[in-house]
């Protein structure tokens, strides 16, 4: 018995090993898992647009939906099927992936009128993957709702549908370049089966444990990211005021102990780094509004476990202020310009 056989039910292995080969290899699962499946993708925003495109390039048969008709049109013009409702996506999909802005959007897509679960009637997809950033509690409740639905057709490897919470890190640049990190919570067997899907959209796939743990990992990651961006922006703005160019200070940071993602991969100073939001007027990135939302999720989770997070509270106040000033749609790295008054690099 191989390593995979000891972790996946025999009925699942029999079905998966009879599937056709896909075009790329993986060391963690047999190549028989690498098959073209019918995948529904819901949420075609800055991130979802690129993620769906990467699935199409990998050979999956993708059907899309978004409340923004212009977003769907970009796909329908290329011959990719689009549907009017989430329920219609579910009717034609084996797997459904959602990438949405908030928990309320996720709940509406899954359990609202014409939602994926359609009043908990029989569903066709055996696997649902939510890559949105939401709180762990909502992920766990939604997973229970998914599992309570009967499958339209028994698959042999699943008696009920399964859900994975799989939020991502890497931003729009990572989504476009297929270098995202996926943080996956839920059934380990489902995670193993879904890994080819994740590898079509990302580079690092990390299993975090049970249901909701992927969501928990993501809000912790974004908490650290927000604080890091504020710290780097504060230091660079101070350096400018003291007569040190941001480029010089960035070089120092990136070759010493201050080095971090916010300095070497997503620098907040316009003119220092190409292909990041600061180089395009802080447009098309991870908005300050979404960062404010994620920090609120982190603070709510901290409150539930009785933990005091003063840096998270301070970061939340700063991003809340940015949103109040009218910069909610600007990338969160705009804190350098719009909160600290930092200058563009000449």
Could you walk me through the main structural features you see in this protein, from its secondary elements to its overall organization?
By secondary structure, the chain is of the alpha/beta class. The protein is 45% helix and 11% strand. The protein has 14 helices and 8 strands. The strands form 2 sheets. Strands 2-1-3-4-5 form a 5-stranded parallel sheet, sandwiched between helices. One of its GO terms (biological process) is L-valine catabolic process.
Keywords, separated by commas or semicolons:
disordered N terminus, 346 residues, 5-stranded parallel sheet, single chain, 8 strands, globular, alpha/beta
Short description:
It is built from 14 helices and eight strands. By secondary structure, the protein is α/β, with parallel strands linked by helices.
Count of discrete alpha- or pi-helical segments spanning 4 or more residues:
14
Percent range for helical residues?
40-55%
Strand order, largest beta sheet: 2-1-3-4-5
- Give a count of the beta strands, DSSP E runs of length 2 or more: 8
Subcellular location: Mitochondrion
Catalytic activity: 3-hydroxy-2-methylpropanoate + NAD(+) = 2-methyl-3-oxopropanoate + NADH + H(+)
Protein name: 3-hydroxyisobutyrate dehydrogenase
Family: Belongs to the HIBADH-related family. 3-hydroxyisobutyrate dehydrogenase subfamily.
């Amino acid at each position: 018995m191989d390593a995979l056989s000891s972790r996946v039910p025999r009925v699942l292995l029999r079905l998966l090993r009879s599937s056709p080969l896909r075009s790329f290899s993986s060391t963690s699962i047999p190549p028989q898992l690498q098959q073209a499946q019918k995948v529904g993708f819901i949420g075609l925003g800055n991130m979802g647009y690129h993620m769906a495109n990467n699935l199409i390039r990998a050979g999956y048969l993708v059907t899309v939906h978004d409340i923004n008709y212009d977003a769907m049109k970009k796909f329908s013009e290329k011959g990719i099927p689009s549907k009017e409702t989430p329920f219609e996506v579910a009717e034609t999909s084996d797997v459904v992936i959602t990438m949405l802005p908030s928990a309320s959007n996720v709940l509406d897509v899954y359990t609202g009128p014409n939602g994926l679960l359609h009043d908990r009637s029989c569903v066709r997809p055996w696997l649902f993957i939510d890559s949105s950033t939401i709180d762990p509690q909502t992920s766990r409740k939604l997973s229970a709702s998914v599992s309570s639905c009967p499958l339209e057709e028994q698959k042999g490897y699943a008696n009920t549908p399964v859900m994975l919470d799989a939020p991502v890190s890497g931003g729009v640049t990572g989504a476009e370049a297929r270098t995202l990190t996926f943080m996956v919570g839920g059934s380990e067997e489902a995670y193993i089966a879904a890994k080819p899907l994740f590898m079509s959209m990302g580079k690092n796939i990390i299993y975090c444990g049970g249901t909701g743990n992927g969501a928990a990992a993501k809000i912790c990651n974004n908490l650290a990211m927000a604080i890091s961006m504020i710290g780097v922006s504060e230091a660079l703005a101070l350096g400018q005021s003291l007569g040190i160019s941001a480029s010089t200070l960035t070089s120092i940071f990136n070759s010493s102990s201050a080095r971090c993602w916010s300095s070497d991969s997503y620098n907040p100073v316009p003119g220092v780094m190409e292909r990041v939001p600061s180089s395009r007027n802080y447009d098309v990135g991870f908005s300050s509004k979404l960062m404010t939302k994620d920090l609120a999720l982190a603070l709510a989770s901290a409150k539930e476990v009785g933990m005091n997070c003063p840096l998270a509270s301070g970061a939340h106040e700063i991003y809340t202020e940015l949103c109040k000033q009218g910069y909610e749609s600007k990338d969160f790295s705009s804190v350098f310009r719009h909160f600290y008054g930092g200058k563009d690099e000449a």
